[in-house]
Sequence to fold (224 residues):
Amino acid sequence: VMTQSPATLSVSPGERATLSCRASQSVSTNLAWYQQKPGQTPSLLISETSTRATGVPARFSGSGSGTQFTLTISSLQSEDFAVYYCHQYNNWPHTFGQGTKLEIK
Amino acid sequence: QLQLQESGPGLVKSSETLSLTCTVSGGYISSGNYRWGWIRQSPGKGLEWIASVLYSGTSFYNPYLESRVTTSIDTSKNQFSLKLSSVTAADTAIYYCASHLIYVGYVSWGQGTLVTVSS
Fold:
């Protein structure tokens, strides 16, 4: 089970956002983060805990290992307000977190 | 860059079987570097992993759905498929197919197809 917190995060543009994901058992570093904007398909942001996908801005960073993971957005831009999901692919069955909605404060 | 496209009925009657196919282009489904996944999203809800199928045909299922799910792969058509039996209104969702690059994650997604279960 992947548990994300908080469920909703209200942050002002330009500020830092920190999203958390906790696994019920170790997933090593086999964890990804996805961004989903309203009406759109999810898109891969981060793989292997900390590797940004092609084209993802450097303000997005991931960290962690084992059971605790963090996605940090250093200076929020208007286009970053979306829902973020973590996903572990270390163990079967694969699982997604329930999502964190990042909204404008 | 792989492209994926879901196809299948948008309306399924309660207790019947939902059947979807995903057609892959821009690469070969027989690539050992990918696992082929199905993910769904109920209206206003989060992502739910349903199943993954490997090019060999080996499949892995969400344990909550396992008794009702079957996946298959057709390398000659570059397609993989999902069947979900005995559907109820709770199975109404957008169904996505996606390619999971090993050690990376779901790198390419289909546009998603809304399947509504009617009574």
User: Anything to note?
Assistant: Chain A has a mean pLDDT of 96. Chain A touches chain B at residues 30, 32, 34, 36, 41-44, 47-48, 51, 53, 83, 85, 87, 89, 92-99 (CB under 8 Å). The first strand of chain A starts at residue 2 and ends at 5. Chain A is about 0% helix and 50% strand.
